[in-house]
Design brief:
heterotrimer; A alpha+beta (777); B alpha+beta (149); C alpha+beta (263); A: 777 residues; alpha+beta; Aldehyde Oxidoreductase, domain 3; 5-stranded mixed sheet; 17 helices; C: Uridine Diphospho-n-acetylenolpyruvylglucosamine Reductase, domain 3; Enolase-like, domain 1; 5-stranded antiparallel sheet; 4-stranded antiparallel sheet; 34% helix
Chain lengths: 777, 149, 263
């Protein structure tokens, strides 16, 4: 590994310094002063329609420019990828969740827009909402009942997508004779878990800036996770030629999946499209929290049948996912969440997974780091813990007995096809389990004498798997050109959303070309010049886009060497030496450096064709990264208040290409998961169903002082299909903290906590129920 | 109304309304480093030094800055360079949105606490939320910065 | 929030005159809550030039100026030496240094915020408030007042009574508001017990305090007294916790507080 020069080395981000010094890299720093300010008009009820809208007074506000309503937008669309159902307009008369946008106000200044928005007189017809997702399927409240006839349902979704029943999707996978195998099992365990809606809470709220450029291209400059998909969506939603729309990604102040919803971009683009003026839309914190998506809420059940020694024989799972008011990519979250998590335990004789996704009048679910796998991994871990408890086994043994190993294959795995089955080709999960246990001090802590007294401690473990991109769908594409000055330029559609993927792309290209990253430029996520990229999701940047970068760089290297020979008058097979960016003949004769080559080849007197290459990397099996985490908790048995003292995580993400970035990805993912495990959850009023915690005073994300000590280690594997052996990392770390913490609580208290978030109140209640009275009496 | 401030060492006169907050005013006066995220003092991304003290500028009425000395990252020069170097070496800038406010706070910490312990550093930095990094490398970066001359 | 006019008078006299001049005139505090209100303010009066940012130690009390920031209070050596760490502990969860530099203790106390951990702690410390017009009154009386007179809070007086104060709080995350807060103090045979965030405005457990102040309190009585303290509050439910959970926390915190202070 030490022969690498650029990858595997701690490399600061290329834009890191500018970010730290506060240079104007973000969208808000680049808005022209003559842009009109756009404010969204939100539905104040979970389910209501506009009966009348009077803008008479609002229009008199000095600086008022224009009001936009559903009457301005007739096209049925969605705010996402074109494979998801088209079930809304850019603006809708019916608000299907509190925060849904029915109209827009544009004005010359922020104050004027805000005033005009407040002065709109809207009469609402309020409908009874359906809030409980476990009761939504077949409910008499039909979230989209009023406009079923106008929807467009893609042929492949027909039969699963049944909005008349509030059904977004139904997934049923059955492998083997589940009933038969279950009947033969020595032991059968049944569990039920709940996971809440969590908000991405990127520190940069959702926003968009649009304008017509000098040639008349409608241009969107915004923090987005997917420039090409967004271009397609906005063009479709406005009914314009995609080629007349350009999307430029700006620096992204946090994505986590939440900047994959294209609504703000459609709204802002509509204003520019209809007024021909530059426009800017910046959501307040409250708007961002109450308008864009959440992590999907799930209620899941699982029956696992095992041998006496804890070997899994059959897994039978069912459940419901809350899609919220619009389906967005809920179907995808449902299916992908299943594949990415159940691949963790592929060595069973039978497996059945049946899950529904349903509409409710809650804030819609969307992509959120973990993408359904976080929730399903929690379920699988909880089941393993229950059965370990029931069989008197150590949970880590149960994991080691059942986890995926190299060579395993199962139809639930990503990319598996009858004639081209998927195999686990790389995994160090077993070592990860052992290492995370060592780091937390499992042996002495787990088996300590049963705790007594008021303050008790416990350790626990959790494991998780994910994927690297979407199999047989995603491709990475990269073009590389050599510049006239002897430097190179990498063109990639991928969007660095604050994870450092730009830097890793350059490290990869630098490694292959043997050229310093300082001599390589990068253009990313600009639809006018970068090749297609499906977007930053599914943890795919390093694996898929990095894979393409490596292929393209290899092509460039070949072309460059060939051209050097040609321009030096050497035969095609003449061996060359390239050292410190200078070409030599094998006998040591210096030929030229890169600047000299560029001068000879293409500058004024040159005449060689420009050096340009492109490469595409197919994501076939989306190989799984793995993680094992251990947690140690300390619980006050009289109050239920607990702290996570320490966590250890050992991660297999293939080869680590940038150790600093990798560590941040792991720690950040763990931190978000700690929030979901302990306190993050959207709360709704019991009678008015209003969202109660919609700012950072009331919706808390983990702060510095919430953090336990964290030990992160990477136990590298070498994934044969990945660039330099790399797999993905972005989401995997969110999978294991929740199970590890709930297992640590189990170890401390002997109580199973299967419903998230695990609040002190829940803990105390469970302790009291177990002890049959007050803790202090 | 007109107010006088010293921004990053330079005397300036601003025309502000009584309803304006300092974070917005600073952004309008050439300080893009001042980020606004929560708008109610809960996240610390808008942290600046006001008369030498770290302050959430989104909660300070601009009129109250009359006569004050204000320092943002733009005015920290070498100190900002040092802190940012420590931060970026470890990847602690994350998506970058919280970084400038954090740099100001780290600088304030160095001036306010003498030989702080790990826990004191951790507690001092608590008001600066970050959704990317998991915080720990930020403490490491500040501890490194404190060792620097 | 909307402010028509901003004024920074040099004296409290001027400030008071301005305050009384219009119904919509207000004294500005740290302004950290202003933005979240719908207040329409006529003249916003800033007392920054009135010299209210101080911590002064006197023979029988420590005076804390109303414009003193929470950060100044929490780092005050005088307050730590005289009263122990309780007041600091009640503040340090308020998000960050840069917010606590903005919040002034006077405005926080005067607001009577129900979520406050600081107010129950000040109550347990037997704090008094000095108003420009109304003179000195106990924080306890101020918390109970039905209709507040327009006035200017000048300083908070912390009596040096040799009181030991403990504050206990439970929260879902470190910098969230409390689910429940209980502060308790003892000076000789005199006890003060106050609760906040239940989730109502902080108040004392007067009846049980009367019992406790009527004779020596033994550690063995802690559980019974705690039960009585919990019985004095009408707990409510909100999204941070249920009434039942708060009652349970009150029982536990009260018992622990008495056990700690009773020796």
């Amino acid at each position: 590994m030490s022969d690498f020069k650029y990858i595997t080395k701690q490399t600061p981000r290329i834009e890191g310094k500018a970010l730290g010094l506060g240079h104007p890299l973000y969208m808000a720093d680049q808005v022209r002063s003559d842009a009109v300010v756009v404010k969204a008009v939100h539905c104040p009820y979970p389910f209501a329609e506009v009966e009348s809208l009077d803008s008479g007074i609002a229009e008199k506000v000095p600086g008022f420019v224009r009001l936009f309503t559903w009457e301005d937008t007739g096209i049925i669309t969605n705010f996402g990828w074109n494979y998801t159902p088209f079930e809304r307009h850019v603006l809708n008369r019916v608000g299907r969740y509190e925060g849904d946008v029915v109209a827009l106000v544009a004005a010359e200044t922020e104050e004027a827009a805000e005033r005009a928005r407040r002065l709109l007189k809207i009469k609402w017809k309020i409908h009874r909402p359906v809030m409980d997702f476990t009761q939504a399927l077949g409910s008499d409240v039909v979230v989209h009942g009023d406009h079923l006839d106008e929807m467009y349902i893609q042929p492949q979704l027909a039969g699963h997508y049944l909005p008349q029943k509030n059904q977004v999707h139904y997934s049923c996978r059955e492998y083997g004779d589940i009933e038969g195998v279950l009947a033969q099992c020595d032991h059968v365990t049944h569990v039920k878990v709940y996971t809440p809606q969590q908000i991405h809470t990127q520190l940069e709220t959702h926003r968009c800036y649009t304008y017509y450029d000098d040639r008349g291209f409608l241009t969107i400059s915004a923090p987005t996770q997917a420039a090409d998909a967004m271009q397609e969506d906005v063009a479709r939603s406005l009914g314009i030629d995609r080629r007349k729309l350009r999307v430029i990604k700006t620096q992204v102040g946090g994505g986590f999946g939440g900047k994959n919803i294209f609504s703000p971009y459609c709204w802002c683009a509509l204003v520019t499209y209809l007024t021909k003026r530059p426009a800017v839309l910046i959501f307040s914190r409250e708007e961002a929290m109450a308008t864009i998506g959440t992590r999907h809420e799930y209620m899941l059940e699982l029956t696992v049948g095992t041998d006496r020694d804890g070997t899994f024989r059959a897994i039978d799972s069912s459940g419901i996912q809350n899609a919220g008011a619009y389906s967005e990519i809920s179907e995808d979250v449902l299916e992908t969440g299943i594949k990415n998590s159940y691949s963790l335990f592929p060595r069973v004789d039978a497996m059945r997974i049946r899950q529904y996704s349903v509409f409710t009048n809650k804030l819609e679910g969307c992509a959120f780091r973990g993408f359904g796998a976080t929730q399903n991994c929690f379920l699988l871990n909880v089941a393993a813990r229950h059965l370990a408890d029931e069989l008197g086994l150590d949970l880590s043994e149960v994991f080691l007995k059942n986890i995926a190993r190299v060579g395993d294959s199962h139809p639930v795995m990503n990319g598996w096809m009858e004639d081209d089955p998927a195999y686990v080709e790389s995994s160090t999960l077993a070592e990860c389990i052992q290492r995370s246990m060592e780091l937390i001090g499992w042996e002495e802590k787990r088996n300590a004498t049963p705790p007594s007294g008021t303050i008790v401690r416990g350790v626990g473990i959790g494991v998780a798997s994910h994927a690297s991109g979407v199999p047989r769908v995603d491709r990475g594409n990269v073009n590389i050109a050599m510049n006239a000055d002897g430097s190179f330029c990498v063109f990639s559609g991928h969007a660095d959303i604050g994870t450092g993927s730009n830097t890793v792309m350059l490290q990869i290209v630098a490694e292959v070309l043997e050229v310093s990253p300082d001599h390589i430029h990068l253009f990313a996520a600009d639809t006018a010049c970068t090749p297609f990229d499906p977007g930053t999701y599914a943890s795919s940047n390093v694996y898929r886009c990095g894979g393409a970068a490596k292929l393209a760089a290899e092509k460039m290297k070949k072309l460059l060497w060939k051209s050097v020979r040609e321009t030096s008058g050497l035969p095609e097979n003449e061996p060359l030496v390239f050292r410190d960016e200078v070409f030599y003949r094998e006998n040591g004769e210096r030929l030229m450096d890169l600047i000299e080559f560029a001068d000879k080849w293409g500058f004024y007197w040159g005449g060689g064709d420009p050096l340009v290459v492109g490469a595409s990397f197919p994501d076939t099996f989306a190989p799984s990264p793995y993680v094992a985490s251990c947690a140690e908790v300390e619980v006050d048995r009289e109050t239920g208040v607990y702290r996570v003292l320490r966590m250890s995580s050992a991660i297999d993400c293939g080869r680590v290409l940038n150790p600093g970035n990798a560590r941040i990805q792991a720690m950040g993912g763990i931190t978000q998961s700690i929030g979901m495990t302990m306190f993050e959850e959207i709360k709704y009023g019991k009678t008015d169903y209003r969202m109660l915690n919609r700012d950072l005073q009331s919706y808390k994300i983990p702060c510095q002082m919430d953090m336990p000590l964290l030990d992160i280690e990477f136990i590298e594997s070498c994934e044969p299909s990945g660039p330099f052996g790399a797999k993905s990392l972005g989401e995997i770390a969110t999978g294991s903290p929740a199970p590890a913490i709930s297992d640590a609580l189990f170890n401390a208290l002997g109580i199973h906590f299967d419903s998230l978030p695990i609040t002190p109140e829940k803990v105390l209640k469970a302790i009291q129920e177990k002890e049959g009275g007050h803790a202090d009496s | 109304m007109k107010i006088q401030v010293t921004l990053n060492g330079k005397k300036q006169e601003w025309d502000v309304t009584p309803n304006e907050y300092l974070a917005d005013t600073l952004r309008a006066h050439g300080c893009p480093s001042v980020k606004i995220s929560c708008g109610d003092g809960a996240c610390g991304t808008c942290t600046v030094l006001l008369n030498g003290k770290p302050m959430v500028s989104c909660e300070v009425l601009s009129v109250r800055a009359d006569g004050a000395e204000i320092v943002t990252v733009e005015g920290l020069e070498e100190e900002a360079d040092k802190i940012v170097d420590c931060l970026t070496r470890l990847g602690g800038e994350g998506c970058g949105w919280c970084a400038p406010g954090f740099v100001v706070l780290a600088y304030a910490l160095k001036r306010e606490l003498h030989n702080p312990t790990y826990d004191e550093v951790k507690a001092y930095l608590n008001g600066n939320l970050c959704r990317c990094t998991g915080y720990i490398v930020r403490i490491e970066a500040v501890l490194e910065y404190l060792q620097m001359p | 929030m909307q402010i028509r006019e901003y004024v920074k008078p040099d004296t409290l006299e001027e400030a008071y005159a301005l305050l009384m001049k219009g119904k919509a005139n207000r004294i500005l505090g740290g302004c950290t809550f202003l933005k979240r209100t719908n207040l329409k303010i006529g003249t916003a009066i800033d007392l920054a030039a009135c010299g209210l940012d101080y911590i002064r130690e006197m023979d029988t009390e420590v005076a804390v100026g109303a414009y003193t920031s929470l950060r100044t209070v929490e780092t005050s050596e005088v307050i730590l030496r005289e009263f122990g760490p309780a007041l600091r502990e009640s503040m340090e969860h308020l998000i960050g240094v840069q917010l606590r530099n903005a919040i002034t203790i006077g405005a926080h106390a005067a607001s009577r915020f129900g979520f406050s951990d600081i107010i129950p702690t000040l109550l347990a410390m037997n704090a008094k408030l000095r108003f420009y017009r109304g003179g000195v009154k106990t924080l306890r009386d101020y918390m109970e007042e039905e209709r507040l007179e327009k006035d200017i809070l000048v300083e908070i007086l912390l009596p040096k009574e040799g009181r030991r104060t403990v504050v206990q709080m439970a929260r879902l995350s470190y910098s969230d508001y409390s689910v429940f807060c209980l502060a308790m103090s003892r000076a000789g045979g005199n006890w003060i017990v106050s609760a906040g965030a239940f989730p109502g405005r902080a108040k004392l457990a007067e009846r049980t305090m009367a019992v406790m102040n009527g004779g020596p309190v033994a550690r063995e009585e802690a559980a019974t007294l705690a039960e009585n303290i919990a019985a004095e509050y009408r707990f409510g439910s909100n999204y941070r916790g249920s009434a039942e959970y708060r009652r349970e926390l009150c029982r536990v915190f009260a018992r622990r507080g008495i056990e700690e202070l009773a020796q």
